[in-house]
Amino acid sequence: MKKPVLRKSTPVLPVPSIEASLPFWEAVGFTRTVEVPHGESLGFVILAGHGIELMLQSHASVAEDVPALAEDARQGRAFLYVEVAELEPVEQALSAYPVVLPRRQTFYGATEVGYREPGGHVVTFARFGEQEG
Question: Residue 23 sits in a domain of what CATH number?
Answer without folding.
Answer: 3.10.180.10
